[in-house]
Write a structure and sequence with these properties.
It comes from Colletotrichum spaethianum. Residues 335-371 are annotated as: Disordered. Pfam families: Metallophos. The protein is an alpha/beta fold. The protein has a single domain (4-367), classed as Purple Acid Phosphatase, chain A, domain 2. It has helices spanning 45-57, 76-90, 96-103, 108-115, 194-203, 256-272, 358-367, and strands at 4-12, 32-35, 63-65, 121-123, 127-132, 138-144, 147-148, 156-157, 171-174, 207-210, 218-223, 244-248, 275-278, 291-296, 310-317, 329-335. An eight-stranded mixed β-sheet has the order 12-11-14-10-9-6-5-16, with no helix packed on it. Strands 4-3-2-1-15-13 form a six-stranded mixed β-sheet. The protein starts with a strand and ends with a helix.
Length: 371
């Protein structure tokens, strides 16, 4: 029988280039920290710098990071499309040196994350990865920044997308939510991805963490039905009677006593720096076969990191004798759709023209969603 080790996992998402206030930075030591994307608001170099500072302050030997739809400097095709659209709209090429300076052309952002590896940061493109942690636990994760959509954002797809989550995955890390789970937008529509839900329902990882929908912050331990349909939905695949909502933002029309109790809990979360939930075999709700813990960790609200990060404690199997136990070791199992560092922006003939006027700078910012 495999031995296990209790593992503390800090989960955040949607920090948008913001920082924790001094008294809100999580102070405990964690085995792993995870950021589920939207590292920035406008994908600017200084926002990535702030995000790396935030990650540096988290006391964890391994910090796993994926991109979100706001992080278009990490999606070369999205950034080039935005620039091409701006050039066409204003009938003159943008100043490539300005674009590179603001958004990190020539692979600068990826270089920043590469340098941050010395402090435990690992930027993950879409794919499956395995890590042997310092606590000797073995962690297998699937990562994907992709969300459905056709707007001018990063890491979007129209039509089909293969979320290839393998069985035996411990944590699925995606930017967007699956359809039906903490995915109700501000205009009361479910915007989660049905294809992602199907992939999670069939693979049933221990944890699926994500963000993107800020009003969906919360956690739910889902019990799966014994028979999963060929095309599962949140209505057909989940045993709601055996599932439990651990925490959420509540509803505006809740009874006063429930709202008061929730407010008191959130004050406690803020004072300790996280909202915690434990799912070891000795806990009330252990993470066992047939269950998945869903966590929406979007913590930005109203221009600040107002919502608490999540601390999830789970049991992981330990490394086998002879493995690199006690030291951080990683293995990329199946990378997919890896984004290569893009070439210098505007390398064509027209890019040599310089525009020093404030109006040109304003055009650049406006079209690249900086206002």
């Amino acid at each position: 029988m495999a031995t296990t080790v209790e593992t503390k996992i800090l989960i955040i998402s949607d920090t948008h280039g913001l920082s924790f206030s001094r008294d809100a930075t999580p102070k405990e030591r964690f085995d792993v920290a995870i950021h589920c994307g939207d590292l920035t608001d406008h994908s600017k170099v200084d926002e990535y710098e702030e995000t790396l500072k935030l990650l540096h302050k988290i006391n964890a030997p391994l910090k796993l990071v994926i991109a979100g739809n706001h992080d278009f400097s990490l999606d070369s095709s999205a950034l080039h499309n935005m620039i091409a659209e701006a050039n066409q709209r204003y009938e003159e090429p943008l100043d490539s040196s300005l674009v590179n300076k603001e958004f990190g052309g020539d692979g600068k952002i990826r270089e920043m994350f590469q340098k941050a590896r010395s402090s435990g940061v690992r930027f993950l493109d879409e794919g499956t990865y395995q890590f042997t942690l310092q606590n000797e636990g073995v962690l297998k994760v699937y990562a994907s920044p992709y969300i459905p959509g056709t707007e001018a954002w990063a890491f979007q797809f129209a039509g089909a997308h293969d979320f290839n989550i393998e069985k035996g995955t411990d944590i699925a890390i995606t930017h967007g939510p699956p359809h039906g789970i903490f995915d109700i937008s501000g205009d009361k529509k479910r915007i989660g991805c049905p294809q992602l839900f199907r992939a999670v329902a069939k693979s049933q990882p221990k944890i699926h963490c994500f963000g993107h929908v800020h009003g969906g912050w919360g956690a739910k331990l889902v019990a799966w039905r014994k028979q999963i349909p060929e095309t599962p939905t949140h209505m057909s695949a989940i045993d709601n009677a055996s599932s439990v909502v651990l925490e959420n933002l509540g509803r505006h029309n809740e009874p006063e006593d429930i709202m008061r109790a929730r407010k008191e809990r959130f004050e406690q979360y803020r004072s300790q720096g996280y909202c915690g939930t434990s799912h070891g075999m000795g806990d009330e709700h252990p993470l066992k076969a047939g269950y998945t813990l869903f966590v929406n960790a979007a913590i930005e609200d109203g221009g600040t990191l107002a919502r608490p990060p999540w601390l999830v404690q789970v049991d992981l199997e330990t490394a086998k004798l002879g493995d690199l136990a006690g030291t951080l070791h990683e293995n990329t199992v199946h990378p997919a759709n890896t984004q290569s560092a893009f070439a210098p922006l505007g390398s064509g003939k027209s890019a040599k023209r310089k525009y020093g006027s404030d109006s040109t700078t304003e055009k650049t910012y406006k079209n690249l969603r900086l206002e």
